[in-house]
Amino acid sequence: MVRKKGGAKKGKAPARPPKPQQVVDTTQKPAVWLPGDAVEEGETLQYDPTAYDCLSSMSLDWPSLSFDILRDHLGAPRSAFPHTLFMVAGTQAGSAKSNYLAVMKVSGLGLSKAAAERQKQQQQQRERQHKGDDSDSDEDMIQGSDAESDADEEEAETAQLHIRKVAHTGGINRVRSCPQQPHVAASWADTAQVQVWDLGEQLGELRDEAAPAAGAQGKVHRVNARHVHTHSSEGYALDWSPVASGRLASGDCRARIHVWEPAPAGKWVVGPAYRGHESSVEDLQWSPTEETVFASASVDKTVRIWDTREQSKSMLSVAAHDSDVNVISWNRATTYMLASGGDDGALRVWDLRALREGGAVANLCYHRGPVTSVEWCPHEASMLATTGADNQLAVWDLALERDPEEEAALAPETNALAPDNLPPQLLFVHSGQHDMKEMHWHPQITGLMVSTAADGFNLFKPYNV
């Protein structure tokens, strides 16, 4: 995030800055700007486009505060641009009857101009090194890349949103797609209902659609939910089992958790309530390896581990945060690791093998507001990402450690050294969205992330992830 003087009107919004960078001010020694720091009159925040391989934004006609990325038929892992991806999102409309599930395809998500130029220069450098020829100057390399810059920019701007809308009564607090059957999605509504939907028809239309259909943005389809269960109050916690196909768990604001078992004829049997939390259940996560085990997070400040074979009490419990525990994520590569985020702004990582001792193996403090989502990277076991009420998305790598001597040696004289209170595990920061609520890694496209906020979606891949 670069701060510049002059030329900007007071109050102008920052242009999606990706990460803490140096402060540019010729009157004083450079310093790192962190979210929450003051921006003086006449200064504006700008982002460095070279920090992204791709960056695109799009929005629905209502805010969407929860979404999920659908597994698709296009292969994994994949990295070649342009990309196509599928998502499902739920709206928070001005009236209950105006809400809908948005089934989406994003096509033509291209490499950014800056990234294309960087890759071309790297390729030229590799070719020169292979030939042992150092005669070409950096200026020649840059001029060569400029010849294709216009085409690269056009490619980066071709991302298109294809959409089908399914009517939904009530604002959607959370939506999740079944990993084994991506066309099956569950929604948690502010009407206290959890509903399961079959979106296969809508996804089939989107797969075959070459260009966004005229009029599709305005048309809302009426579809009957496959199953509906009414809790005693509304809620947010919702998760499908990655091991047992069709098994679902939902938790509400009255501390009740229900496990759904698939039944014949596309229905579900909803079991009796699991009780143990003393306040609202905010998040649920099934074990990535054990089909009967799941974790829960609560406003009562605890994280609990449950086994479906014992409903009367949780198997393990830990006082995880100093305030509400909002979100949890179970590491699917290192399956004894669980991450949690709370109202205290902290990200904590737990070793489930030592949960009874109660000490987190990592306690990372960066966000200046409640943590609103957390998710482990599906392609790198030590990496995870968080979003916060401070409108920041942070990418973390637990394998990173600070080396002050190396930092001082590598930093130019005019560069800013990281402050002592900046966690060395902080790898990247993306910002520029308002009221950021949720993020997800794409399970099949390496390094690609999507975040949602009150003002829409951002789709991006950092250069260093």
Textual characterization of the structure:
- It comes from Chlorella variabilis.
- Belongs to the WD repeat RBAP46/RBAP48/MSI1 family.
- A hairpin with a 6-residue loop joins strand 17 (281-286) and strand 18.
- The chain starts with a strand and ends with a strand.
- It is globular.
- It folds into two domains: 1-47, no CATH class; 49-462, Methylamine Dehydrogenase, Chain H, CATH 2.130.10.
- The strands form eight sheets. Strands 4-5-6-7-11 form a five-stranded mixed β-sheet, with helices on one face. Strands 3-31-30-29 form a four-stranded antiparallel β-sheet.
- The chain has 465 residues and is mainly beta.
- The protein contains five helices and 31 strands.
Write the layout of secondary structure elements.
Blueprint: E1 2-5, E2 43-46, E3 52-58, E4 66-70, E5 83-90, E6 100-109, H1 113-131, H2 138-146, H3 149-156, E7 160-167, E8 172-177, E9 184-189, E10 193-198, H4 200-207, E11 220-221, E12 227-230, E13 235-240, E14 248-252, E15 257-263, E16 267-270, E17 281-286, E18 293-298, E19 302-307, E20 316-319, E21 325-330, E22 337-342, E23 346-351, E24 362-365, E25 371-376, E26 383-388, E27 392-397, H5 404-410, E28 426-431, E29 436-441, E30 449-453, E31 456-462
Parallel strand pairs: 7-11
Antiparallel strand pairs: 1-2, 3-31, 4-5, 5-6, 6-7, 8-9, 9-10, 10-12, 13-14, 14-15, 15-16, 17-18, 18-19, 19-20, 21-22, 22-23, 23-24, 25-26, 26-27, 27-28, 29-30, 30-31
Helix pairs in contact: 1-2, 1-3
